[in-house]
Amino acid sequence: MTTALELHLVNKIYPPPTTVTALRDVSLVVRTGETVAITGPSGAGKTTLLSILGTLERPTSGAVRIAGTDTTDLSDPDLAGVRAWHLGFVFQQFFLLDHLSVLDNVATGLLYRGVPAATRRARAGEVLERVGLSGRLRHRPAQLSGGERQRVAIARALVGQPAVLLADEPTGNLDSATGQEIAALLAGLGGSTTVVLITHNMEVAATMARQVQLRDGRILDTADAP
Ligand SMILES: Nc1ncnc2c1ncn2[C@@H]1O[C@H](COP(=O)(O)OP(=O)(O)OP(=O)(O)O)[C@@H](O)[C@H]1O
């Protein structure tokens, strides 16, 4: 099986004045199509880890491979290219554009691909059908429920067919039943799309095929897990 994401002995030390060591010797291999939950207490380094997997932060030391590309020596524009072509992001706060329709919110996910507007909308319609929102194309985000808004955000992340979807607390703003529906949707992407999500919620974590626990910037061995 091919590898979607690989971290090798990654350390992240935030610079002075705080000088916090957020990740210590983290090594992680995520295979193509795998679904992974990253769990751990507040401050354990989850968001830092996801930001490094997403090339939004650079490690202080160690190597990061994304979809077969070693990112160590890439320039900032080249890293932005890796993000645009290989990665999709979903956040707790949805980050939808209120003045655009659901269809156009999703179509913005293709803006940096040089795809003509009509094709962007056609692909947005297809992916909205996949997340169960084909009846909401002309709605504005304010006219949707929280779960529907997160489905739009997931569709926007998927419209460019990224190899990897990275989600930071995607159910954090949802009630538990809706959160489980969103978790099930994300889990169902596995096989074709690699999914890595951060969550505090153990039921959500359990929907992913694999759970990785962080404590004080280190990955716990399964044998250490409580
Ligand atoms: N930009 C930053 N500058 C300095 N220190 C930071 C920065 N971002 C995070 N940290 C510190 O790094 C450590 C790990 O933070 P991180 O946000 O990755 O943890 P987390 O597990 O995601 O926590 P939470 O569950 O509360 O979101 C914490 O001690 C935090 O204070």
Can you walk me through this structure?
The chain is α/β, with parallel strands linked by helices. It has a single domain, classed as Rossmann fold (3-Layer(aba) Sandwich). It is 32% helix and 26% strand. The chain is built from 7 helices and 10 strands. It has a 6-stranded mixed β-sheet, sandwiched between helices. A 4-stranded antiparallel β-sheet has the order 2-1-4-5, covered by helices on one side. β9 and β10 form a beta hairpin. α4 packs across α5 and α5 runs parallel beside α6. The model has no long low-confidence stretch (mean pLDDT 94). The chain binds adenosine-5'-triphosphate (ATP). Adenosine-5'-triphosphate binds next to α1. GO terms for molecular function: ATP binding; ATP hydrolysis activity; transmembrane transporter activity. One of its GO terms (cellular component) is membrane protein complex. Pfam families: ABC_tran. This is Peptide ABC transporter ATP-binding protein. It comes from Dactylosporangium siamense.
